[in-house]
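Cross-check.
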Amino acid sequence: MRRIVVLAAAAALAVAPAAAFAAGDQMAPAAQAPVPDATVGKAGAALHDVAQLQQKYQGKMDSATPQQKQGLSEQANAEAVQAIQAHGLSVQEYSQVIRTAQNNPQLKQRLLQAANKGD
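Predicted model, tokenized:
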């Protein structure tokens, strides 16, 4: 199970969840300021939960009709937002950390390590 979560978290970093970036599209590119460990921990825990939601909904989406997919997508996005906020981050803060990690290998590693603590 842990390997699946690691792979799902890495995939989430490569292709960010729609919920995380829908609100963040209007944001300026993330500055290269260091990301505090507490923020990395929160974002990693949220990433873990979002990756699990992606797994949960992927199977449902594969067998859904186009109309059902729309509803499932909305439900998955709402749950992802709740998961992010449950860890004390706004969607914008989470998005910024994810974006920064996509271009910063050290941050990406820290984020994946934090995501794996959820197992």
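Residues 1-7, 14-31 have pLDDT under 50 and may be disordered. The chain is about 75% helix and 0% strand. Passed to J.P. for a second look.
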